[in-house]
Design a protein that fits this description.
This protein has 24 helices and 9 strands. The protein is of the alpha+beta class.
Amino acid sequence: LASLSQQAVEIARRVGDQVALVHALRIRYLFVWGPKSIEERLAIPTEMLRLADEVGDRAIALQAHHWRLFNLLTLGDIEAVDAEIEAYARLAEELRQPLHLWMTTLFRTMRALLDGRFEEEERLALQALAIGQRAQGQTAVTWFGAQINVLRREQGRVRELEAGTRSLVEQYPGAPIIRCALAFIYSEMGREAEARAEFERLAANDFADLPQDYADWLPSTSLLAYVCAFLDDGRRAATLYDLLLPYAGQNVVVGPAISCLGSASLFLGLVAATMSRWGDGEQHFQDALEMNARMGARPWVAWTQHYYADMLLRRGEPGDGEKAQELLAQALDTAQELGMKALVERALAMKLQAQGIDTSASRNSIDAVAASVYVDKPDLRPHAAPDGTVTILFSDIEGSTAMTERLGDQRWLELLRGHNAIVRKRVAAHEGFEVKAEGDGFMLAFQSARKGLQCAVDIQRAFAARNEGADEPIRVRIGLHTGEAIKEADDFFGKNVILAARIAGQAQGGEILVSSLLKELTESAGDIAFGEGREVELKGLSGPHQVHQIAWQ
């Protein structure tokens, strides 16, 4: 078929039929795929555009602009990409067809994401979804997911993507890119068993079962490079390296240019480092830095700096530590400016570890308070209800480590004093007891489960009011559970306290989560609004656990 498509182009040229030539070129484009074909893939729509102008076919011109946009994005020519988006937008406005207006918004969403304009990206993605659902239905939902998934990763909200992605895998079992995305999500969440299971399924036959098409193959393989590095699978890394190497110097473009994962050299660097091929990894990371920087793709520059620093720290040659620190400092600056929460946390932890500071695997203020309380085992029986139960509340400030790094000691201490004053005022108002406080972390106890919930709501509302006029917003995570204090101290502090702490650790900033037992104890009165439950895995506690959100706003 590929040779027939070429023959059709040659015949149309020979007879001088411009309309036939346009259609022959459209067919030919579908058979031109692969890293070495990029020049022809760009030449075809360029010629189509000239012919469309001559015959006055605006629909062909739109398609030509789209295809040129895709290939120019692959090459990293951002100025030309922007010109194509504007040309496409002008024609779309003339035709006023929902499909083309939707595509215009998708392209602009892609560009906002590539630049790191995340608030604008989310607004445009929702706008595209609204337009697209009228034009393309379910496809609009799927492409919205592809765009929003990248944003949620940057926001540190990747856990929110699991359920929806698993559902899409079930709906579209013949779309491996969705399963690749699920494997990536598991790796980002640190869930090795699930990531490995999906990876093994996709790696069958040395990845030969991945569809060989321009829209999905390269993004799928790139996502698998992430997973491969997470799993430290050197053997599969060698296969992925050979598959990706022809794409060095090109960008990874998702679907019809609805997203861009930056330079393919980043993913080559990841798998090269997984094989301990340090020299190759260094060259690929440097190439990725150069290409991503040239495009102004600041999020991808920052991620490349992070992974490059990780490789240097593992290699450990003279000067690697200093260079890694410099790269991490640059990545942190960008991540903090753009609001890349996931990268801020990782880069900061890596930076502290490189400086010899024990970060204790990812211990936060809640963990620190829980660990301290477990050692001290304070007597909570005076604060128990008549039935012997105590309601436990843990809280801390979301992203406090990064906030400390950004603000410096003096400003952080001022903010912390204000935070602690707000919490303590509400605890006193609801007859709570401050069991322990360390830094921004609190453990509180209440005789009444309802008073504990009301205190949590009051705390969140107080911070919401404070944030309205504050230069530095404070977003607090809160988790609650009720347990029996009259049992053996080891049993109480080893189960109930840890369960409450782990529930709090699952909460996002501004969120209140409670255990299913606490919900059962308090829901009958009907004065507390509970959201839908969700099943979570809690570190150190076996089996799945049901938690519920409190609607406090």
